[in-house]
Amino acid sequence: MIQFHHLLFLCVSETPDHEDWFGFCYSSVKQICESTLSYVRQLEARVRQLEEENRMLPQVGDFQKHIARQCHLSCSLLFEI
To answer: Which UniProt keywords are given for this protein, alphabetically ordered (predicted)?
Structure first.
């Protein structure tokens, strides 16, 4: 995780003339924040996707139980003949 003092060092060490220090810092921080925000949005989308999949799981489980019951009934009928 990048902390403020790391950003400050980055700004001071990579600015050739220290006159444009604030502008350089602002653009560096803005770029980091934008990429972080993009990553957070991707995580939020993935969380929504997983929540939707979790809502569907009980339905899938019920369907599998139904199929298992049908197979059991079919097999028992087969062996009764």
So the answer is: Coiled coil
